[in-house]
Design brief:
The complex is a heterodimer of chains A (111) and B (288).
Chain A lengths: L8 H9 L6 E3 L5 E6 L2 E6 L4 E5 L3 H10 L4 H11 L6 H17 L2 E3 L1
Antiparallel strand pairs in A: 1-5, 2-3, 3-4
Helix pairs in contact in A: 3-4
Chain B lengths: L1 E7 L2 E7 L2 H10 L13 E6 L11 E6 L9 E2 L3 H16 L3 E11 L2 E6 L6 H9 L4 E4 L2 E5 L5 E2 L5 E4 L1 H9 L10 E4 L2 E6 L3 H5 L6 E10 L4 E4 L2 H10 L4 H18 L2 E6 L2 H14 L3
Parallel strand pairs in B: 2-3, 7-14, 14-16
Antiparallel strand pairs in B: 1-2, 3-4, 4-5, 6-7, 6-8, 6-9, 9-10, 11-13, 12-13, 15-16
Helix pairs in contact in B: 6-7
Classes of the chains: A alpha+beta (111), B alpha+beta (288).
């Protein structure tokens, strides 16, 4: 008689809840050259040799995680607090998208 | 292998070909240019048949040299001069590390340089050729070299590559037929003919100039002009530079200094007379 491989739902819930959310960190501004040009932040990232034009809220995001690594959730809370905004679902979606972009270009990394 | 050595600005080229006539043509086009300093060329550019039979049978010229991109399509031998010029361009585009390269033409007057960046077809070469016949000194066509230490424009006065209607226009203005290369038809950019800058531009190829104005031309539109923000200037100049990334931090710092110190604008023009008038207006506004 075949044995069932189904995982009981309560075990699955426990497993998922024990995976910690990723922490994000950055080389900014330690390994970067920066210059404000026309309200944009021009960043030369020394490790990659790449140049980036950043607009709000990317510089503020980098500034926040440069002090201590943060989860996307904590970063959203901190950023919304800085701008006196409510950390709602839309804010979390936007910050997650910006983080993914910064991760893709190498200005943010997991730690 | 036939060979021609020539110095253009800081670069000493050793140009080679297994066919004689492209080298003879090149030698005529570069009449008056000096040999490399100390007799030693530092850059090698050459053409060669892509396969042995292509030297004789429907002959083709493939581009080669110290620096080369893979999979560059060979050209028909009748366009061998263009292939040699492209081989020389490639050595500069891929190998230059002492200067920041800007994809532009440039002319000089009173020690100050007017830089004309732009895509192919924007009219930068034609304007440089026209200005070169109107009291300006041609500094460069295709590559403007910015010294990383001094920020000055180092002349690189190659023959100007004229295309299509610009050929007829410049033939009407330049009486000395010997300054023109052969007319090449059916190239990827249409008809093409090189124009050697005036003798003065070649004799003074070691006299650098201060970047004074950057103008982005756009040929074929009603006359118009507008300023270019520093962020746009930075983006457009880096986009057109073949060695900005390779230069790393020095490239970034040099580009920032150019953007900080050089005024820039864009303009559209329908014909040469209008283009020259707009350039003149811009230059008089900044005392150039």
């Amino acid at each position: 008689m075949p044995r069932s491989r189904a995982v009981p739902p309560e075990i699955l819930r426990i497993t998922v809840s024990t995976v910690p959310p990723p922490l994000f960190t950055t080389d900014f501004p330690r390994l970067c050259l920066t210059r404000e040009v026309d309200g944009l932040l021009l960043v030369f990232h020394r490790p990659s040799g790449a140049t980036h034009f950043l607009e709000n809220p990317a510089p503020e995001m980098l500034d926040l995680i440069s002090g201590s690594p943060m989860t996307a959730e904590d970063l959203t809370d901190a950023l919304c607090e800085r701008f006196s905004l409510g950390a709602d679902a839309e804010a979390r979606t936007v910050i997650a998208a910006r983080l993914a972009e910064l991760l893709a270009v190498g200005l943010v990394r997991h730690c | 292998m036939y060979r021609f050595d020539v110095r253009i600005g800081h670069a000493g080229f050793r140009v080679g070909s297994p066919w004689r006539h492209p080298i003879d043509t090149l030698r005529r086009l570069y009449a008056g240019y000096p040999p490399p300093e100390g007799g030693g060329a530092t850059l090698t550019a050459r053409i060669a048949p892509p396969r042995p039979l292509r030297r004789w049978l429907r002959p083709q010229a493939a581009i080669a040299g110290d620096h080369c991109l893979p999979d560059v399509v060979p050209m028909a031998l009748r366009h061998a001069l263009l292939a040699l010029e492209m081989a020389m361009n490639m050595q500069v585009a891929l190998g230059e590390r002492r200067h920041l390269l800007i994809h532009a033409a440039a002319v000089e007057r009173g020690g100050k340089a007017l830089i004309l960046p732009g895509e192919s077809g924007s009219g930068k070469s034609t304007l440089a050729a026209l200005l070169g016949e109107a009291g300006w000194r041609v500094l460069a066509d295709e590559f403007v070299l910015i010294d990383l230490a001094t920020l000055r424009v180092r002349p690189f006065p190659r023959p100007i590559s004229l295309k299509n209607d610009a050929i007829v226009e410049m033939q009407a203005r330049v009486a000395d037929e010997s300054r023109f290369g052969p007319l090449l038809t059916g190239t990827p950019k249409g008809a093409l003919r090189h124009l050697r800058p005036k003798a003065d531009a070649i004799a003074r190829m070691d006299e650098s100039a201060v970047p004074a104005l950057i103008l982005f031309p756009a040929f074929g539109f009603p006359s118009d002009s507008a300023g270019v923000s520093r962020s746009e200037l930075f983006a457009r100049l880096t986009e057109g530079s073949t060695n900005y990334i390779a230069l790393g931090q020095r490239g970034f710092e040099t580009m920032l200094r150019i953007v900080d110190t050089t005024p820039a604008a864009r303009f559209a023009y329908p014909d040469s007379a209008a283009g020259l008038a707009i350039v003149d207006q811009f230059c008089s506004e900044i005392g150039l």
